[in-house]
Structures are given as C-alpha cells and as structure tokens.
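Slide 14.
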Amino acid sequence: MTSKTDEATGPADALGYEQARDELIEVVRRLETGGTTLEESLALWERGEELAKVCRRWLDGARARLDAALAGEDAEADAPED
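Slide 15: predicted structure.
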C-alpha cells in the first residue's frame, strides 16, 4: 500500500486546485476502468480521498473569500456618503 505521499505526484496538500482536480479525475477513471489489483485499487481510493479533501479546502477557501468580498461591497453600499 502507498503512503500519504504518492511518489509520482507528491503530497496532496501541496497541490493547487486544478492539479488536485485533474489527478482526482485520473484516479476515478482508473478505478472505473478496473484491471487493478485490490491493493492498487485501495491505494487509488485513498489517494482519491486525499485529493477530494484538497479540492474541498480550495473550494471552501474560495467561497470564504467571495463571501468576504461581497460582505465588503454590502458594507460600502450601506455606508453613508459624505
């Protein structure tokens, strides 16, 4: 079984959103295609879980930044003009 770090792609936490998403797509494709051993399938599944968490963190961070920007715009709109 593989460790948390995949030798080909490195630690999942170090990946950007697009990199993690693209690798996750490839992991899913390989799992759906089949032809891997049980051990390989488990390693792919674990890597996919890590990648999905990375993608979720990126998306959550983007949502928080967007919400903060929108809240800032609302505050400016509500502020009295001089």
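Speaker note: The radius of gyration is 19 Å.
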